[in-house]
Amino acid sequence: MGLLRFSTNSTDALKMTTKLKPGIAGLILLLLQLSGCATPSERFESSAKNLGLTSIEIIGEPFRHRVYLNQTAAQSDTIPVVHVYLDGDGTPWEMKRWIAEDPTPRNPLILRLMAADKEPAILLGRPCYYGLHSTENCHYSLWTSKRYSTEVVESMASALRKWLTNTKAANVVLIGYSGGGALATLLAPYFKNTSIVVTIAANLNTSAWSRHHAYLPLDASLNPIDAQPLPAEIKQIHLAGVKDGNVPASIVESFSRRQANAVYLPIDGFDHVCCWADLWPDILKRYIAPSFERPN
Question: Could you tell me the domains of the chain?
């Protein structure tokens, strides 16, 4: 399936709209106006810079990955623990009909979570996200049917392994929002120093999620609930919004029940977006920080 594209020649486009029905002409003019604005990747980058984050590129196998670092992570060579954030699926589809050219999330919620984190923290980007959608080896299947595929997970693991080698982090905490939560559980077994996995409104059963939305199944992706339970030494915290219509809390709960060392936290009044950034400092303090506190 091809991507929806329009001519960048505005004069020709304006002439064309005069021959179309008013509703269609208005839609095309709106899309042309939006095309002159910043791209989703540019807006995300601007948000990251405003929060004091820096970005680097790391070559995985075989994809390139954008990695954002907070100041604590960027200035440290050897650190006891690093919080690795993994973002949601972003916008694989435009208006649920056309494959997006740039899947980068339009809502930078993950950056707001990182901004509240005082520990060394990085955001590990997926292949083709954050301005890399036109780079070598990128294909739209990587943010649609293959969004949680083995090739995506292994390239992300390769990129993270390279960064960890340079920083010598002793412990890794994987923190995933929405689809990033699925990737957090899939990445955890790749690292012996994974100590905690935290998921937020996470798609932990892709088959149930696809049925819930009447979507085509993600047959080219891995399904977290079908994987072997994570080792008992990895502590897990799985948060779900009771009012979440995107990823129902029952999906998160069913995954959590299969795990050896998991805490399931349903939050009343929360949906898929609201109000995780407000709650996040308390989650960090209550559930993550105590695991690394030194005894007196």
Answer: 1-37 (no CATH), 39-292 (3.40.50.1820)
